[in-house]
Specification:
- The complex is a heterodimer.
- By secondary structure, chain A is an alpha/beta fold.
- Chain A folds into three domains: 27-251, Rossmann fold; 255-347, Roll (Ubiquitin-like (UB roll)), CATH 3.10.20.600; 352-445, Up-down Bundle (de novo design (two linked rop proteins)).
- Chain A is 40% helix and 11% strand.
- Chain A has 18 helices and nine strands.
- Chain A has helices at residues 24-27, 44-48, 54-60, 64-74, 86-91, 117-123, 125-139, 153-168, 199-206, 235-247, 249-254, 288-295, 328-333, 352-366, 372-389, 395-408, 416-440, 461-465, and strands at residues 102-107, 143-148, 184-189, 230-234, 265-272, 278-283, 304-308, 317-318, 342-347.
- In chain A, helix 7 (125-139) crosses helix 10 (235-247).
- The longest helix of chain A is centred in the last third of the chain and has 25 residues, at 416-440.
- By secondary structure, chain B is of the alpha+beta class.
- Among the domains of chain B are: 18-79, Arc Repressor Mutant, subunit A; 93-195, Glutaredoxin, CATH 3.40.30.10.
- In chain B, 41% of the residues lie in helices and 8% in strands.
- A five-stranded mixed sheet of chain B has the order 2-3-1-4-5.
- In chain B, a hairpin with a 2-residue loop joins strand 4 (149-151) and strand 5.
- Chain B is globular.
- Classes of the chains: A alpha/beta, B alpha+beta.
- Chains A and B meet through helix 6, helix 8, strand 3, strand 5 and strand 6 of A and helix 2, helix 5, helix 7, helix 8 and helix 9 of B.
- Chain B: Its cofactor is [2Fe-2S] cluster.
- Chain B: Keywords: 2Fe-2S, Iron, Iron-sulfur, Metal-binding, Oxidoreductase.
- Chain B: Its EC number is 1.6.5.11.
- Chain B: It comes from Streptomyces spirodelae.
- Chain B: This is NADH-quinone oxidoreductase subunit NuoE.
Chain lengths: 467, 244
């Protein structure tokens, strides 16, 4: 068996039952990504060649309520970070209320480290469109929106093409959901604001306003877009629906390496100081050790120091957590959150204080300013973190950042502030020594050059993988 | 009374020339028709006016306000919230270096410092020839291709200081530049028109650069048994053999 860390020669035998299995052909389960290596995977022809839009016929033949129950029974949970059951979200939409219903797909992928929806939309946009049509049948919606972050023009191009193809093929348009039951789909490009990934800020932004979160309740299911019942789902959640419907809920439930409360296939994104960064589609519950073992581990000669399970807003984990099943329950029990499955891996060359300072600057920049604890607290954190990184702070400042983070956490309308607190809390928990070393040594003890992708010369992993 | 600069454009703003106004109105009506509520068209309309002048001018804001029956204050409040709307004249190519944590650590900070020195500009500043505006950007959802540089929001993956300097030199010399993922570069104004919701009319633009980048295919290739697990692991051939 290959190993994860590469300089210590320690025994890497895993205590997790599946932890020893590293055969990628058995462990990985490409579904959404199964045909990305074909030159026309993003076109309608490429999608249909592998059964694309087959699930749609099956779904449209079902009663909408039965379809919602089916997705609920399958156990599909939101892939945008929170893991809320998708079918339950659909069920919350009041029916027979005489108001229009809307489906809004959150394609504002901006959580630092998260990089799954953008390659998915680039290589396979029709899986999302088919999922949208199915979801709109379920919630009885005749107008859906894709809110795509603006900074990804290549993806926008492919969405424009895919939507045009779907209209021309009749999957969208006047009779998309049956005779006289039309469906419109609008692709909407955002304009650069992390906060618009928060669902109520996204809705305000889609209404042409500053993207600032709304007070809840009312929830979007009752008063969402234009104050009408609205489902907001992540790209990957909706794109997973066609395969689920096509292959069946039993098949979907059978894909689980960890908790049976977290079934299904999903995209894990490996990045950072790993030998082979990229997208790895596997059943929920795979471990980081398994993913690293099969993909060549950390970059040669280095060892894992800390990682995020699902973006910078999820508390950091360390090499103690290599065998944590990467599902909602497993990561939750380890004191973090599955989040977006953005596995940012940093090796021993990386200064954790530098990493956290940079994330803190991000949260301060992206705080929308609506809630005082987040707006002011993230500003203060940046000042203190910069001083700590430069070795100009005192040990009392370490308590102060913990106190400020505590005063942000849970005290604002949305989770941005909670996300800002996560790296502070978790880095202090696991790496307080390193903070203190900055203070004692009056500066940062790390050489940033050693962390770069080119630090180890032309044989460093990324250059080789992409050559 | 002191003269405090609030960053609010002086009003009333001049209108566009009649020919421009007529053309933009037709575009604006098409955008507005996509939405059940007209105000939803504000973000695309701001992209549209940016495609006309390269940044959001007071004339552009007045145009948006008139098309949507909003006040210019309401438009200004939105235009200044979002980072993609430029508030001053800028270059043909917006070069954005990701300096969020992962890219920064992997070399984004070094790339950014190198470009600042090479171009002689600071953050958000434009080279004297009007070609390049340099800025640092936040995470752009391409961490498996780190460090990443964006030019007019097309992806330049796995960059180094050398490759990034060569990139800006090519742009300034007018040589054709193709991104790692995305279509051959067009100007910032043309990009803004795409963002307003008007598809790229260039033949083959949508097909450029293939279905997926190499990192996007890493797991798929492994699952299909196409690449050897552990090939870049340091423990040599022994672990590679076991990995199979």
């Amino acid at each position: 068996m290959t190993t994860v860390t590469h300089d210590g020669g320690q025994d890497e035998t895993s205590p997790h039952p599946a932890g020893g299995a590293t055969d990628p052909q058995k462990l990985l389960s490409p579904v959404l990504s199964a045909h990305w290596d074909e030159p026309d995977s993003y076109t309608l022809a490429g999608y249909r060649r592998h059964g694309g839009y087959r699930a749609l016929g099956k779904a449209l033949a079902m009663d909408p309520d039965d379809l919602i129950a089916y997705v609920k029974d399958a156990g599909l949970r939101g892939r945008g970070g929170a893991g809320f059951p998708t079918g339950m979200k659909w069920q919350f939409i009041p029916q027979g209320d005489g108001k229009p219903h809307y489906l809004v797909v959150n394609a504002d992928e901006s959580e630092p480290g998260t990089c799954k929806d953008i390659p998915l939309l680039f290589a396979n946009p029709h899986s999302l469109i088919e999922g949208i049509v199915i979801a709109c049948h379920a919630i009885r919606s005749s107008h859906a929106f894709i809110y795509l972050r603006g900074e990804v023009v290549p993806v926008l191009r492919r969405l424009h093409l895919a939507v045009r193809e779907a209209y021309e093929a009749g999957y969208l348009g006047p009779d998309a959901l049956g005779p006289g039951k039309g469906l419109e789909l609008t692709v909407h490009a955002g304009a650069g604001a992390y906060i618009c990934g928060e669902e109520t800020a996204l809705l305000d932004s889609l209404e042409g306003r500053r993207g600032q979160p709304r007070l809840r309740p009312p929830f979007p299911a009752v008063a969402g877009l234009y104050a009408c019942p609205t489902v907001v789902n992540n790209v990957e959640s909706i794109a997973s629906v066609p395969a689920l419907v096509d292959k069946g809920k039993d098949w979907f439930r059978s894909l689980a390496l960890g908790s049976d409360k977290s079934p299904g296939f999903t995209l894990y994104s490996l990045s950072g100081h790993v030998a082979r960064p990229g997208q790895y589609e596997a059943p929920l519950g795979i471990t980081l050790r398994q993913l690293l073992d099969m993909s060549g581990g950390m970059r040669p000669g280095h060892r894992l120091k800390f990682w995020t399970p699902g973006g910078s807003s999820t508390p950091l984990l360390t090499d103690e957590h290599l065998d944590v099943p990467l599902d909602y329950e497993g990561v939750g029990n380890a004191g973090s959150m599955l989040g977006t499955k953005a596995l940012q891996c940093f090796d021993e060359t990386t200064c954790v204080v530098r990493a956290v300072t940079r994330w803190t600057e991000f949260y301060a920049h992206e705080s929308c300013g609506k809630c005082t604890p987040c707006r002011e607290g993230t500003y203060w954190l940046v000042q203190l973190m910069r001083d700590i990184e430069a070795g100009k702070a005192t040990s009392a400042d370490l308590d102060k950042i913990a106190d400020i983070a505590d005063n942000i956490n849970g005290k604002s309308f949305c989770a941005l502030g909670d996300g800002a607190a996560s790296p502070i809390f978790s880095s202090l928990k696991y790496f307080r020594d390193e903070y203190e070393a900055h203070l004692a040594g009056r500066g940062c003890p790390f050489d940033p050059e050693k962390s770069t992708a080119w630090a180890d010369g032309p044989n460093s992993a990324h250059l080789e993988v992409n050559a | 009374m002191t003269n405090v600069e609030m960053g609010i454009p002086e009003m009333p703003a001049p209108d566009y020339p009649a020919e421009v106004r007529e053309r933009l109105e037709a575009d604006a009506r098409e955008i507005i028709a996509r939405y059940p509520g007209s105000r939803s068209a504000l973000l695309p309309l701001l992209h549209l006016v940016q495609s006309e002048e390269g940044h959001v001018t007071r004339t552009g804001q007045r145009f948006c306000a008139e098309m949507l029956e909003l006040t210019t204050a309401e438009v200004n409040a939105v235009a200044t919230f979002y980072s993609m709307y430029r508030r001053k004249a800028s270059g043909d190519y917006q070069v954005g270096v990701c300096t969020n944590t992962l890219c920064a650590v992997m070399g984004g900070d070094a790339i950014y410092a190198s470009l600042r020195e090479h171009l002689g500009v600071g953050d958000g500043e434009t080279t004297e020839d009007g070609k390049i505006t340099l800025e640092h950007v936040e995470c752009n959802a391409a961490c498996d291709f780190a460090p990443v540089v964006m030019v007019n929001w097309e992806f330049f993956d796995n960059q180094t200081p050398d490759s990034a300097r060569a990139l800006v030199d090519d742009l300034r010399a007018g040589r054709e530049v193709a991104p790692t993922r995305g279509a051959p570069l067009c100007t910032f104004k043309q990009t803004a028109r795409l963002l307003a919701g008007f598809p790229d009319e260039r033949p083959d633009a949508v097909d450029a650069s293939g279905s997926a980048g190499p990192a996007s295919l890493a797991g798929l290739r492994l699952a299909k048994g196409e690449s050897t697990p552990g090939v870049v692991a340091p423990r040599g051939a022994a672990s590679d053999e076991e990995g199979k």
